[in-house]
């Protein structure tokens, strides 16, 4: 498996040479385009990362978890996974950190760990993805995309719990 990336690069260079393309010039053009894209989405990413950091540091996610607990109890969502469910649409690395904490505190075969694992695989970092894609393309009006994406995340969280209950408990 370690040979796949070098083999792919060699194939790409060989293909470009067969087509009589200037490989280095194409590479440099690709790097320039990549840097332009990175610069264009940087403000969106910086704003999102700063906002998530501020919300975490202020205790907002913990407070929101506390108030969502009665609603989550209706769907048998345990208190251990609520913070991860809230953070997942905003931050992939933050939610994976919480997933690791759930593994350490409840064990990897616990109900909370299995639910959190399914949630992690079934949902998207919605706000991060919207910030990157819309920032790169310059879209300013998201229309119904945000509402549909967040609704899909909420249903995925609920269905993750129901799926784990159905297949494991």
Account of the 3D structure:
The chain is an all-alpha fold. The chain has one domain. It is 80% helix and 0% strand. The chain contains eight helices and no strands. The protein has helices at residues 4-18, 23-58, 60-74, 82-87, 92-106, 111-122, 126-137, 145-168. The longest helix is centred in the first third of the chain and has 36 residues, at 23-58. The chain is extended and about 65 Å long. The chain starts with a helix and ends with a helix. 19% of the residues are buried. The mean pLDDT is 87.
What's a concise summary of this model?
With 169 residues, the chain is mostly helical. Helix content is 80%, strand content 0%.
The radius of gyration is 21 Å
Query: Which blocks of ≥5 consecutive residues have pLDDT under 50?
Result: none
Helical segment count: 8
Listing every helix as H and every strand as E from the N terminus to the C terminus, the arrangement reads HHHHHHHH
**Largest β-sheet summary:** none
Q: Based on helices, strands and strand pairing, what is the structural class?
A: mainly alpha
Described by the principal axes of the CA atoms, the overall outline is extended
Kindly report the average pLDDT value: 87
Q: What percent of residues adopt helix (DSSP H or I)?
A: over 70%
Strand content: under 5%
Number of E-type strands: 0
Number of domains: 1
Q: What's the end-to-end separation, in Å?
A: 37 Å
List the topology elements.
Blueprint: H1 4-18, H2 23-58, H3 60-74, H4 82-87, H5 92-106, H6 111-122, H7 126-137, H8 145-168
Helix pairs in contact: 2-7, 5-6, 6-8
